[in-house]
Amino acid sequence: MGRVSQAQAEENRRRVVETASRLFREQGTHTSVADLMKASGLTHGGFYKQFASKEALIDEATAQAFDELARHHKDGIEQHAGQRDAAQRALIDTYLSAEHRDGAAQGCPVAALATDMAREHGDGEARRVYTEGVRDFAAILATDDRDGITRLSTMVGALLLARATEGSPLSEEILTAAREALTVSG
Fold first, then answer.
1. Partner of 112 for a Cys bridge, out of 25, 34, 88, 131, CB 3.0 to 4.6 A?
2. Degrees (nearest 5) of the Cα angle 98, 20, 44?
3. Angle at CA 75, nearest 5°, toward 77 and 19?
């Protein structure tokens, strides 16, 4: 089998990072390199031609997930131009929805990667990106009378509990209660 072109190698790398970003949010960073490469449609042997280590891929995939989150937030803010309260309400409603609960692979990396980042040792790139992403998300949620970190903590906690109780009536109750608590007019 011949060598792939530089353009194809770049496309393969992009595909692996996107696949890893999705799988890490869905299954955690413990997902094996073999499973990642299979899901990408590539061979396991090609991994080390693209990445120095699995940790390097985790770094890139975490950045990819937070880039997606930032684009999503930017789109939501633009849809509600000049209406910050409406934009925040829409964000909260979407975040605390059954669709988001059930779609971890495309969902928020703050919730999906929290446990993995808590287990990370030191101050690696993935943890730095994660920390910045949490800070930026909290800033988006901040209002004059509500603290963004409190709002984010409530949303992430509710999403995690709803995912953990999925299939029971409690799951929807958690989402509804958190939505109501965060969107009460003051």
1. 25
2. 140
3. 140
The number of residues making up the chain comes to 186
CA distance 49 to 170: 46
- Report DSSP state, residue 122: S
Helices (H), the chain: 6-27, 33-40, 47-50, 54-79, 84-95, 98-102, 109-112, 114-119, 125-141, 148-164, 169-183
What spatial distance separates the first Cα and last Cα of the chain, rounded to whole Å?
A: 66
- Please answer whether residues 14 and 41 qualify as being in contact, where contact means their C-beta atoms are separated by less than 8 angstroms: no
Closest to 157 (Cα-Cα) out of 118, 101, 119, 82: 101
User: Could you give the angle at which helices 148-164 and 84-95 cross, rounded to 10 degrees?
Assistant: 20
The string of pLDDT tens digits covering residues 35-88 is 999 999 998 888 888 899 999 999 999 999 999 998 887 776 677 677 778 888
